Amino acid sequence: MVFIDTDILSIFSKIQRLPLLFAVFEQDVLNIAAAVENEIKVGVAKGFPFANTIMELQTQGRIQTYYPITEDENFMVSLPDTLDKGERESMAICKRLIALLASNERRVMHHCQANGIHCTNLNEILRALWELRILPMSDVRMVVTEIEVKDSLKFRSSATIFEQPK
To answer: Does the pTM of the predicted model rise above 0.90?
Structure first.
């Protein structure tokens, strides 16, 4: 079971490559926390086309929303307020369900590791695209360029994405 945070969803939606997430995780349905759904709805209200694309997938049943239960809420209060509600809720649900969380926030990765929550990030997803032979490495390089242009995200280093195993 895989949960996707708002940042990863928006990145892949902005470059019109959301199907790659389904392929890399080998899932027909991806999951989001209710707070992530609310963040996407804010994007819809602001007129962001990428948010509409995500909500269309939810309408089609390809993205499923999970709501926190008391156990999740109890865990969430132990997490710092520097994490937004979508991140805290996603982490709590993933902890309870022993699910994987995809997020591109280093602080989320840090708190996931500290709390025994399985987590992956954008670089690992991009690397998996060519390692799993979903895309050739040259196409993944194009995806990286698309992300940099359309999401204004700058990669510190692409070495973790493209380093060949020894």
So the answer is: yes
